[in-house]
Each structure stands twice: as C-alpha cells, then as structure tokens.
Amino acid sequence: MRYRGLICVGRILKSYGAKGEVVVVSETEYPETLVEYKYFYIRYKGEQKKLDVETAKKSRRRFIFKFKDIETLEKAKAIEGHYLFVKREDLIETDDEGFYVFDLEGLTAFDEKGKKVGILETVMKRKPYDYFIILNEEGREIILPAIKEYIKKIDFENEKIILNIPEGL
C-alpha cells in the first residue's frame, strides 16, 4: 500500500498498557526490520503525521512500539488501526538478492518465449501466497500466483520479468 509517495511497512493493531505503547504488525516481507526505523508517518484525521519512535521491541510475531508524544492510553487508542508508512529512501535495505515486492510493480511481463504478456500492475497479498495482477494489452487482468516455479527471471535493469505462465491463462 502506498500513500502520497510513502510505503506501508506496518499497522497499529491496538494499544498496549497504560503508558501509550501500541502493538504493531509488519506489512513487509522483512518484518524483523520494523524495529530499526526511527520514525513513521501515519494518516491521521486526513493529515500526514510523523511519529518518532521512542522504543521498539519484538514480542512473538508482533512488535511493541512507544512513540514520543503518545504517552497515555487514550492517545494510543486514537491511533489504533492506522498504517505506518516510511519514505522509499528510508526503507531498510534488503540483502544483495532481496527486493521489496512493490519493486516489481510496473515491470513488463513476458512469457518464456519472449512474448509480451502485459504490465505487472500490482502484487496482491493473500494467503497462502501473493498474486501478480498483470494487465494485458486488451485490458484483461491475468492473475498469477507469485511463486518461484512461475518466476523465471527478474530483470530490474531492463524493467521486465519473465514468467512461466501455465496454459489457459
């Protein structure tokens, strides 16, 4: 999810305790990086608001954050359900082979024979895996599971992705 050039990295689930802490879940492929951010942006009452991180710690599969200026249970409850965003340039870098799923959006998709399939419009996050939504030249959506056996090559330099597309799609 994007908002005014910002990238969604988490969501505030609920308040935690009486001192303004909140429980956060990661919305990225690299959840462990969430505690490394020094600040986030949220969309609060129609405005973009910056939240500076005071403390952050991992708690099972979730995270507990304390933000500066959020010092009461009431203030923590006011931001429940909000998404946490960061600027693209502030994203924690992945390893050499890693990338963020949204980096795939906009790539031209080709089949293994070199035939253009369409433009990879978005990656839809679902369980048990994500799906590529590819818009072909006729305006039809092609939905393909984003799994390794269908991805043959990702070429960011030439802005293309080569896919093994099953017959019938």
Describe this structure in words.
The chain has 169 residues and is mostly beta strands. The chain folds into two domains: 2-90, Beta Barrel (Elongation Factor Tu (Ef-tu), domain 3); 101-163, Roll (SH3 type barrels). The chain contains one helix and 13 strands. Strands 1, 2, 3, 4, 5, 6 and 7 form a seven-stranded antiparallel sheet that branches.
Cα gyration radius (Å): 19 Å
Low-confidence stretches: none
- Please give the CATH class of the largest domain: Mainly Beta
Determine the number of helices (DSSP H or I, runs of at least 4 residues). Answer: 1
| CATH architecture level-2 label of the largest domain | Beta Barrel
How many structural domains in the coordinates? 2
Distance between the termini: 26 Å
What is the ordering of alpha helices and beta strands?
EEEEEEHEEEEEEE
Q: What is the helix content? A: under 10%
CATH fold annotation of the largest domain: Elongation Factor Tu (Ef-tu), domain 3
CATH level-four homologous superfamily name of the largest domain: RimM
Nearest-integer average pLDDT: 89
Shape: elongated
Sketch the major β-sheet. 7 strands, antiparallel
Oligomeric assembly: single chain
- Would you tell me the structural class of the helices and strands? mainly beta
